[in-house]
Design a protein that fits this description.
single chain, 83 residues, alpha+beta, 3 strands, 39% helix, repressor, RNA-binding, cytoplasm
């Protein structure tokens, strides 16, 4: 991990396209601005983690869903394709 000291108005450049600027420091609160291309996603960590967990939950099939899908596939196979 790179640890830097920056004052209000100073910046850090990440790669060629991302600039993180310290906007304001008040006590233990630091406001930062992030200038990044639109195709680069920027999230607060707690939001990123919530989205990641929701995606994992949505992509995990429950036993109930698998059983239901197997029933649909069996019934479709028994009927055969329509022409």
């Amino acid at each position: 991990m790179l640890v830097l000291t920056r004052k209000a108005g100073e910046s850090v450049v990440i790669g060629d396209e991302v600039v993180v600027r310290v906007l304001e420091v008040r006590g233990d609160v630091v406001r930062v601005g992030i200038d990044a291309p639109r195709d680069v996603q920027v999230h607060r960590q707690e939001v990123y983690e919530a989205v990641r967990e929701a995606n994992i939950a949505a992509s995990t099939a429950s036993e109930e869903a698998i059983t239901a899908l197997q029933g649909i596939v069996r019934r479709a196979g028994a009927v055969g394709p329509t022409q």
